[in-house]
Inverse folding.
């Protein structure tokens, strides 16, 4: 079986973007890093809202712009969601100072504006590049290692 490193999925509405995130949620586990790239309004937070739903974590998801990171505790399972907004970070070092290493023990880390901290991310992470057109959004998922390739495979089986 061949395993590809990437998959591109187009969504036509915010609801569809949330469904895409929700579909991916159950396929994630502690230690996974999801790096979101896309301009303001691309749908990063919208996608994370779906992801949180799919992971069955608690709390309302909004951009953690000022607090940088918001933790969503597990409702059912045992995986937390650490939602980071890197927009106001000066360098990726700050992520390590904040304790990203600890977060990865019991949770998934999803990062908005990940390009600003790219050098600090674990090598095996999943990039999600969101291209914004009118109401369409093109989500390109790119794997950088064994684990993120498994996530791409999981997405290939998603029917959302
Ligand atoms: P970001 O976090 O990337 O800045 P948000 O998720 O907060 O973006 O906002 C995305 C905006 O784009 C919302 O206002 C949403 O209603 C709108 N939108 C329109 N079409 C889509 C789509 N296909 N997917 C996601 N959001 C969309
Ligand atoms: Mg946002």
């Amino acid at each position: 079986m061949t395993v590809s490193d990437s998959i591109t999925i187009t969504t036509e509405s915010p609801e569809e973007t949330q469904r895409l995130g929700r579909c991916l949620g159950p396929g994630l586990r502690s230690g996974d890093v999801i790096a979101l790239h896309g301009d303001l309004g691309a749908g990063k937070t919208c996608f994370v809202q779906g992801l949180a739903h799919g992971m069955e974590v608690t709390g309302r998801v909004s951009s953690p712009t000022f607090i940088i990171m918001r933790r969503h505790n597990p409702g059912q399972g045992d995986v937390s969601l650490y939602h980071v907004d890197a927009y106001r970070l000066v360098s990726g070092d700050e992520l390590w100072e904040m304790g990203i290493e600890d977060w990865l023990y019991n949770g998934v880390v999803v990062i908005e504006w990940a390009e600003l901290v790219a050098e600090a991310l674990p090598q095996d992470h999943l990039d999600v590049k969101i291209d914004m057109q009118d109401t369409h959004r093109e989500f390109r998922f790119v794997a950088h290692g064994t684990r993120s390739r498994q996530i791409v495979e999981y997405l290939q089986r998603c029917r959302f």
Notes: The radius of gyration is 14 Å. The mean pLDDT is 95.
